Amino acid sequence: MEEFNEKKIKKAxxxxxxxxxxxxxxxxxxxxxxxxxxLSKKKVTKKHFAPDISAMKILLERYGNLSKEEIELMSDxxxxxxxxxxxxxxxxxxxD
Length: 96
Fold this sequence. Notes:
about 100 residues; 4 helices
């Protein structure tokens, strides 16, 4: 069970660190004469969630070989390069 949670957490961190798209659904209901709710409108839109620097830092702290202090001193460019390196390693691990 613990291994499953670890994989789930790792996958969620990668998703947040890279950014992702998700569907956002808005539904409107109306009531007929008998008081039964019926779907009258449904709108599905794609929503983009940008990459999250905090998720990148957590990935680096947890799965990288850098200390928290070293990570805090890194520039955005260095963080992105390290993120890409870690993601490549994690993806290779998933395929093994």
